[in-house]
Amino acid sequence: xYRAAKTWLVRSGSCPLSIKIKSFVEGVKKEAxxxxxxxxxxxxxxxxxxxxxxxxxxxxxxxxxxxxxxxRFDNPSPELxxxxxxxxxxxxxxxxxxxxxxxxxxxxxxxxxxxxLVSKTPAECTDVLKETINLINCRLIIARYSEGxxxxxxxxxxxxxxxxxxxxxxTCTITTFVxxxxxxLRIADVFIRPDPVGKLSSLIGKSGxxxxxxxxxxxxxxxxxxxxxxxxxxxxxxxFDRATTLIYWQNGTWR
Length: 255
Known about the structure:
- By secondary structure, the protein is an alpha/beta fold.
- Helix content is 19%, strand content 24%.
- The longest helix has 12 residues, at 196-207.
- The radius of gyration is 20 Å and the shape is elongated.
């Protein structure tokens, strides 16, 4: 595998690289090889444990525009949090971050237009969203067994999804979102109980947004579905997803 990777990296010349890292058969040696070409990274998916000791503290990623990190970062000792960042990535616009700890300057948050946070608490999501003022698309997969409030002012946000893992109890409230440009909302009904119509109406009214698409996730009765239809007749595309969202990783994306 190392020889094959080296051959293809040489053959690629100076072209931008799209890389999916799913296994390290030869460990550190292959990590070092891939890192040596980081100036050409354009789209990178890492969904395996990555040892942060082998990532540089300061590095530039001039071509990087999409970064998906779902594998955990393994440190030699618990007190060592990731000291590296991807902050010097002027082209970065899209990111997916999994369940690992990262500092506030881990990414150039203000540049991002699309962000997915996986298995984070409402408070952790809010801390990040405070810095992502230019988001257009956002997906939050709330952590297992967590609760709290999530939301900030995101003036450019057009699409928002609030979901959770299958069969993992969790709650959060959305009362602090201000999203004047929001057009598409996908939300688990557990996040807007016990007054879903009231909470959604508050979100829409406070934001002044004009929703075009609304999808409620949950096992809802016909009566409850009709309540939504009567409450929001102006939403042209109102739909229901019966099962609680099942989140899993497939072909480079969370589904």
